[in-house]
Structures are given as structure tokens and as C-alpha cells.
Design goal:
288 residues; mainly alpha; 2% strand; globular
Amino acid sequence: MKKKKTLFQTVEPYLYILPAFIFFCLFVFWPFGKTLYLSLSRTTPLGEAAQFVGLQNFINIFTDKDFYNSLLVSFEYAIMMVVFSIALGFILAVVSNEKMKGKAIFRTIYALPMAVSAAAASVVFMFIFHSSLGILNRVLGTNIGWLTDSKWALISVTIVSVWMNIGMNYIYITAALQGVPDDLYESASLEGAGFFHKHKDVTIPCISPTLFFLLIINVINSLQAYAQFKMMTQGGPSNSTNVIVYEIYQEAFINSRFGVACAESIVLFLILIVLTAIQFRLEKRVTY
């Protein structure tokens, strides 16, 4: 006859997850709930709710040209960053996976950007991109204001972000390449496939789950980028680099409109949810 569980045996599994649940409540659920509450309120300069206004903050941001501009800039930045960081990470991983001398040294060099913080990288690249003292203009023999010209500012910050993200993409893709069977490459070679066709027809389908994962992670990271924009351009010139996260920062800590900033945060959260859902809908095209 099966023994009845004691009260302790019943609650024991929940006790193990209780510490993690408490931390989730303190650092995830409570901040999210407070953000949602403040997005429906008019706030004081100290960020406390002063008056419940319902959806008025959302109405305000959707009638604000600066908010729409920040969304457009964010998507432009995200597309450039995701495409180039994954593509370059893939190329470097494929090249370093070939039989060559000093492979370990190259792999270390390619992965190094991952260890550099966004603030440190931004400071270094600010000197590189400086219009009069920067090494880039001296090498190219130009006089471009990389961070002060609205035509080049977003591209310049994107270059920094791509450089910082290559390391992560490179490591994941390199690990995925180790799982591609050599037999497939040998079969492709016997059928006359060249270097590019082998990687197009063998490598990419075999590592497509990893590429799919990196696509999601890079999209989320790109839409949450902040440090490089704060350090390098402060959203300028002429709002050409005013991405959504920096717009939220300005509304909260410069304009002291915390309710509006929280409403913009909720919109960003919903955008990320929708984009992730769309990507998972396309998951059926991924080869497992």
C-alpha cells in the first residue's frame, strides 16, 4: 500500500525553488509591475505616481514625432548590426575552422572583442572616429565628421556594435561547426562542389539552429543597445542616433517624465515579444 506523503514531502520541491522565485519577484516581476503601473500614471520629478491617467501616456508617445523617429533609427540600427555581425562572425568561424597553422591564436583574437565592455570600446572608437585627431580620417585622407555628421553617425556606432558582437557570434558558430560531419564535406567534394557551395549547401543547413538562436539574441541585443549611443553621440546629431532605449533614458532622467518613459518601455517590450514570436513562427524553416 502506497504511503501518504507528509506535509514536508509535499512542500519540499517548492522550497527548493523558493529562493529563485523570491529573486524573480524582486528583480523581474515587481519592476515590471511597477513599470506598467507608472506607464498609466502622471509622475512627480522623483518618479512617484501622482495621478492615474490611463492610456494618456501611450496616446502622447504615439503622437510624438521623436518617438517614431527613435523607432525608425532603432530598426535601421538593428538590421545593420544583426546582418553584419552574424555574417562576419560566420565568415571568421569558417575561415578559422580550416586546417591552418596558428588556428588557436586566430580564434583567441577573433573572440577578444567579447571581453571588452561597451563603454571602453566606445571611448577607444571615439578617438578613432574623431574628425580632426582620429586615425581613421588620417589613414583615409578624409575630413569626415564620423560622429558629428548625421549621414555617418549611425553607421559609425553600428561599426562599434558589430565589432563588439562578432566575438559572441564567432564562438557560437565555431562550436556549431564542430558538429558538422566531415562525411558531408567529403561527399560534396566528390560531387564537385567548391568551397562556397560546400558551405552554402552543407554548413549553413547543418548549423541553422545556431544561426536561428543568434538571430533572436542579436535582434534583442540590438534593440536594447544604450551604452555606445550614450558615450559616443548622445542621440545626435539631429536625433540621427536617438534609438528607443536612449529616448527612454532622456524622457526619464533628463525630462523627468517617468510615466512617458515607462510607456515607451512597455512598447519596446511588446515589440520584442512580437519580433520573437515572428521568428519562432519561421522556425519550421530551420533544419534540426
